[in-house]
Amino acid sequence: AGIINFCANNYLGLSSHPEVIRAAVEALEKFGAGLSSVRFICGTQSIHKELEEKIARFHQREDAILYASCFDANAGIFEALLTPEDAVLSDELNHASIIDGIRLCKANKYRYKHMDMQDLEAKLQEAQKHRLRLVATDGAFSMDGDIAPLREICQLAQKYDALVFIDECHATGFLGPNGRGTDELLGVMDKVTIINSTLGKALGGAAGGYTTGPKPLIDLLRQRSRPYLFSNSLPPAVVGCASKALDLLMESNAIAQSMAAKTQRFRSKMTAAGFTISGKDHPICPVMLGDARLASVMAEDMLNRGIYVIGFSYPVVPKGKARIRVQISAVHSDEDIDRCVDAFTEVGRKHGALR
Ligand code: PLP
């Protein structure tokens, strides 16, 4: 009782939104508990097609394809798209699912230093000998709350004739003026070719993932992508949640804006209190502490004060860069944010993180 969750990916608070819950119940009642099938056998209902159309419309892309998770979407795309004659260039801090997806494909692999455009350019020059080049990056990186320099990435991609892929799990629904994501935020919606994202974070938080992009690519994935072909279709209730979440976001950007204001409140108050918060303007607010034990005891003490946060240390983050990752949500009130900052200040003083 009285514990506030500051470590969920529920950025917009939609997992407890009454309309989202009602949509799930209605879909469950009307379409059943599940399809007992993959999509291409008897696992496609009208709501699956409608959700794919809605996702494509939301991102202003030609088509979309659903997966059981974004992990699956990332596992399924590189192998289906790239051959041994092609190349994939990946940011060294990309999410594990991108790394695993790339491992599964036979393309030539290049890893560039985190958000380092000089290194990316050098790798693109090296990769000119291949038939096709794909640059793959997280839009927003979940450990640091930093945002990929997509404008520069797209310029380089244009210069060296490469495609751009972004994973928008920590951006869809809230980054950019209309919550379309990192590509909207940085004004490159027409330059990014492929987007993978999740329905399991801001878009209702249930489960599911997708790829959206050019129609021929989506057609190819329906024919060749193994997690799509060989894994069960999304349950109707999950489809209902995500579909309603997208409706709410396409009607208004008020929820995303309220989350942004709360993020700003938390970041500025914590910085004023003397903490270092990594990243910029993102609801992932890593409170940098350095020492792994300090991060863990502080997180424990925060819970004693009713604030649920988790310490991250090696091997999840580099040695010496332990932190408590705070995630802001639209459901937090200003009082919740202030209570969290007060608890951090008390606990930080007690454990010597603040003087
Ligand atoms: N990509 C990124 C950047 C993520 O943070 C996550 C989830 O943690 C995933 C992919 C996987 O998403 P899902 O939970 O839908 O499999």
UniProtKB/TrEMBL annotation:
Its cofactor is pyridoxal 5'-phosphate. Pfam families: Aminotran_1_2. Keywords: Acyltransferase, Pyridoxal phosphate, Transferase, Transit peptide. PROSITE patterns: AA_TRANSFER_CLASS_2. It catalyses: glycine + acetyl-CoA = (2S)-2-amino-3-oxobutanoate + CoA. InterPro entries: 2am3keto_CoA_ligase (IPR011282), Aminotrans_II_pyridoxalP_BS (IPR001917), Aminotransferase_I/II_large (IPR004839), AON_synthase_class-II (IPR050087), PyrdxlP-dep_Trfase (IPR015424), PyrdxlP-dep_Trfase_major (IPR015421), PyrdxlP-dep_Trfase_small (IPR015422). GO terms for molecular function: glycine C-acetyltransferase activity; pyridoxal phosphate binding. Its EC number is 2.3.1.29. Transmembrane segments: none annotated. Residues 3-344 form the Aminotransferase class I/classII large domain. GO terms for cellular component: cytosol; mitochondrial matrix. It comes from the Eukaryota. GO terms for biological process: L-threonine catabolic process. Belongs to the class-II pyridoxal-phosphate-dependent aminotransferase family. This is 2-amino-3-ketobutyrate coenzyme A ligase, mitochondrial. It comes from Tyrannus savana (Fork-tailed flycatcher).
